[in-house]
Amino acid sequence: MTRDLENAILPTVSPVFxxxxxxxRETILYKTRRDVLRLNVGFLLKENVGYSRKMDFEVPxxxxxxxxxxxxxxxxxxxxxxxxxxxxxxxLKGEHPAECVRCLTEFSQTLTAEIKQLYDFPPDPSSEFAVxxxxxxxxxxxxxxxxxxxxxxRALCRADCKGxxxxxxxxxxxxxxxxxxxxxxxxxxVLKNLLNK
Length: 197
Hints:
The chain has 5 helices and 6 strands; from the N terminus they run ααβαβββββαα. The chain has one domain (3-149). A hairpin with a 3-residue loop joins strand 3 (68-81) and strand 4 (85-99). The termini are far apart. 25% of the residues lie in helices and 32% in strands. The protein has 197 residues and is of the alpha+beta class.
């Protein structure tokens, strides 16, 4: 479509229709991003036991699940044909936004997923991890689970984070504040006043 024709047609198109096209475009991108971890392993199922194939990942932004977006997603997994199915072994990692518990600064936190999982084939209805009849296995659920488990209980922007001043809120990583610090325990402040009399 030429630019002139596009300029002539677009003003006549309903805004609701254009909005639906944007929604469709976002949906397609959303599915494409998530489908990065849906692997076609049909070729492996035809190989002899012991045959292995390595798969590399490098995605700028990956939506692993509705509640987990990972930036700079990278890593590799080895897929090995075994008697009961496909054994997946590898390490995946990426960055996720977090807030430091000491200084409240936002930073990118590295999350990892060490995958060591057997995917059954033929699929067993009782198995959580299985290769589908069509020859696909989905790494998204286990990657999400392992990455969320790798989130530390207390996120720190760096190991030696100095935190915030409890009086003025100055970020001590950026420099000291002018507040006077007293080494005395506030509970004993009354006793100090008695000694000064």
